[in-house]
Structures are given as C-alpha cells and as structure tokens.
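User: Reviewer 2 asked us to show a designed sequence for the structure in our supplementary figure. I'm pasting the structure tokens here. Could you produce the per-position amino acids so we can include them in the response letter?
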C-alpha cells in the first residue's frame, strides 16, 4: 500500500491539473490567458490575439480566426472583441437602426459577478450579412464591451456548394471567453 499511495496521488494530481480545452472539430485546443490592465480572460490557443484595438475607443483585445471553427461554410470572417473605456457613457445603446440594421430585444447575463446587457445586432447589404452579439456593462465607472462579430454571405447567392455556418458553435467559443472574463 505504501508504494501504491504515491502512484495514486501522482495520478490524481495529473488528472486534476489538466489544462482547459475547447473543441475545434475533433481537435482539442488548449486555452491561453490574456491579462490586460483592466480585464483578463482565457481564449482558444488557435485564435490570434491582437491587443490595443480600438473597439470602444479604449484599451482592448481582439481575437481573430474564429471562422476556423466553421470551415467550408458561408462564414467569411468572425472575431471576438473585448474592450474597456474610462467613460461609462460608452456603454449607452447604439441605435443601429439608424444605419439600416436591426436590433434584437436585450437580455441580461451575469459575468464575473456583474450584470452585462446582451444585445443582438444584424446588418445587411449586397448579399452579405453581419451579425453581432454584444455584451456591455459598467463596472467601477468604466464601460466594458465584449462582442462576437460574424460576417457571412447569403447561402442562396452562392453556387450551391456552400453550407450555412452553425452560429451556435461560434457562440460556444465566445461563451468560453466570456465565462472566463474577470475585472482587474
């Protein structure tokens, strides 16, 4: 029993220390960490991280390559954007309808102990669509935004070889990032 105990403990430690992953097709992708000045989050390691983006006119991070989770579909590009701004006013609603798009009814989702407003936006033109799922919240007088932005072509306009992308799969990748978000 004395020899079996260290082996059992080692096995328990190894199982307990497995790093979190997300599935991309049949491939497990380990999660990477982003630690910024105002927030931190985890993201699939096969995405490309760019920091200092200007999504909300503040400090942020953008994850590109999300369309890799939907190969051979009508999805042309997708990204996840996360940003903060020192002005809480930046979290006020954008009237996307003024630009010809449409908005869905907002809902609320709790992330990192804070209620984020969840909003869906859609815009279209010339056989193309852009859908965005945007989370916004004010925390410590700062505005925080997270968005999944998807650009795709209308399947009916293709030669019949494209299949419609699965938006729910992309939302699951976005949710992995959102669920790991913390305020710094």
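Assistant: Here is a per-position design you can include in the supplement:
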């Amino acid at each position: 029993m004395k020899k079996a105990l260290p082996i059992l403990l080692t096995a328990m430690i190894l199982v307990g220390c497995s790093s979190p992953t997300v599935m991309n097709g049949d491939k497990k992708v380990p999660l990477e960490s982003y630690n910024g000045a105002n927030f931190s989050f985890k993201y699939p390691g096969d995405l490309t991280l760019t920091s200092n983006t200007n999504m909300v006119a503040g400090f942020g991070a953008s994850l590109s390559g999300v369309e890799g989770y939907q190969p051979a579909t009508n999805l042309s590009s997708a990204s996840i954007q996360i940003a903060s701004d020192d002005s809480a006013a930046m979290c006020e609603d954008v009237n996307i309808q003024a630009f010809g798009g449409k908005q869905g009814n907002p809902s609320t989702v709790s992330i990192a102990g804070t209620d984020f407003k969840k909003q869906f936006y859609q815009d279209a033109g010339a056989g193309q669509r852009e859908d965005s799922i945007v989370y916004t919240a004010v925390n410590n007088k700062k505005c925080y935004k997270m968005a999944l932005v998807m650009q795709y072509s209308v399947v009916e306009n293709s030669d019949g070889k494209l299949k419609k992308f699965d938006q729910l799969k992309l939302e699951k990748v976005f949710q992995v990032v959102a669920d790991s978000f913390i305020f710094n």
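For the response letter, you might also mention the following. The chain is about 15% helix and 45% strand. The first helix runs from residue 4 to 16.
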